[in-house]
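Q: what sequence does this backbone want?
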């Protein structure tokens, strides 16, 4: 069955059938669309995507690249003694933020007529290799690795438009979508300060603070909030753990080992899963949240409202971030001259029950 044959039976032009197949709904009336769709359904017509991409010089495929936050050598070493752990590290969708963003991005790109090719990667060269071997119209790099040289390699040598999520380099023309991470760090620390806390710890991800542009921006916001409140930040309260429940538990266990008088009274944590892991360990160790120690997360994942007590967190609008990234990539595919644009989205505080008054005071929680 061809477009011409469908057009003949439906009594419309081949172009009209093409518009229906390609979901160009604004160009076809609802009645005509129903008539054409009835013929398509009758014969079970499926468009030949390969032929369409060859004729249009576009594949309508977007490479959605998710980083593996360990080197190949590190994964190989772990696999020698703990194969299950190595496979877990390579499973990029086990990260709740990543899996949520992939879901939102797929929906937005589908709405623009694209298909996604999901691929994890260790090195930036793998992104370029995929571009060389597959006909993709564009790439989205979701929270690419913290090695700046790898990101710069992709940006300067890419053969198709690339949008980076959660990374920005002012000295390279690039397309990026980021949250206002400085604002988020400031907001999180300020929420604790407002309830009388002065011993406020900053808990970063990826094993540290300064190695990640995202975490570093949040850290600078946190430091600014402390300075504005005339609080001197303490080095012992600047921490970093691997992102995840296990890393959060390690954080909680470290705090439990501190002498009570030296413990922070509030934790500003750079992911919800870190915060949830920390709360679990702290409660097991006999500390109450927020009566003994306050905890604030980051991201506002759905699970955050379901734990006990519900987590106060800095909320990113993941749906808006995905919409912006998909729209930006689509525009750059349509306009080859579009090489540089940065979209920054605001964050907000989702106030729940894990931040309370300093000094083990009951009530007054946010």
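A:
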């Amino acid at each position: 069955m061809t477009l011409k044959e469908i057009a003949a039976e439906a009594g419309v032009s081949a172009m009209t059938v093409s518009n229906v197949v390609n979901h160009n709904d604004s160009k076809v009336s609802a009645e005509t669309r129903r008539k054409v769709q009835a013929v398509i359904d009758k014969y079970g017509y499926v468009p030949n995507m390969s032929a369409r991409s060859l004729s249009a010089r576009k594949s309508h495929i977007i490479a959605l690249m998710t980083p593996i936050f360990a080197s190949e050598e590190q994964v190989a070493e772990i696999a020698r003694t703990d194969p299950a752990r190595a496979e877990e590290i390579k499973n990029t969708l086990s990260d709740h933020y990543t899996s949520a963003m992939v879901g939102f991005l797929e929906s937005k790109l589908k709405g623009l007529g694209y298909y996604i090719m999901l691929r994890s990667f260790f090195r930036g060269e793998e992104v370029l290799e995929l571009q060389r071997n597959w006909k993709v119209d564009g790439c989205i790099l979701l929270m690419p690795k913290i090695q700046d040289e790898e990101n710069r390699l992709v940006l300067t040598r890419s053969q198709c438009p690339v949008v980076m999520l959660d990374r920005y380099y002012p000295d390279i023309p690039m397309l990026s979508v980021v949250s206002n991470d400085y604002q988020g760090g400031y907001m999180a620390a300020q929420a604790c300060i407002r309830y009388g806390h002065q011993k406020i710890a900053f808990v970063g991800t990826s094993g540290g603070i300064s190695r990640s542009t995202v975490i570093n921006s949040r850290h600078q916001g946190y430091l600014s909030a402390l300075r504005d409140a005339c609080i001197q930040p303490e080095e012992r309260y600047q921490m970093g753990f691997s992102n995840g429940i296990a890393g959060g538990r390690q954080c909680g266990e470290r705090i439990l080992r501190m002498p009570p008088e030296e413990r922070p009274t509030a934790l500003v944590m750079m992911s919800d899963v870190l915060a949830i892991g920390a709360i679990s360990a702290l409660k097991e160790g006999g500390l109450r949240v927020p009566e003994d120690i306050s905890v604030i997360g980051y991201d506002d994942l759905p699970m955050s409202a379901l734990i006990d007590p519900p987590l106060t967190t800095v909320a990113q609008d993941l749906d808006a971030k995905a919409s912006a990234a998909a729209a930006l990539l689509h525009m750059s595919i349509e306009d080859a001259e579009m090489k540089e644009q940065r979209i920054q989205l605001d964050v907000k505080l989702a106030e729940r029950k894990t931040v309370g008054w300093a000094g083990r005071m009951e009530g007054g929680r946010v």
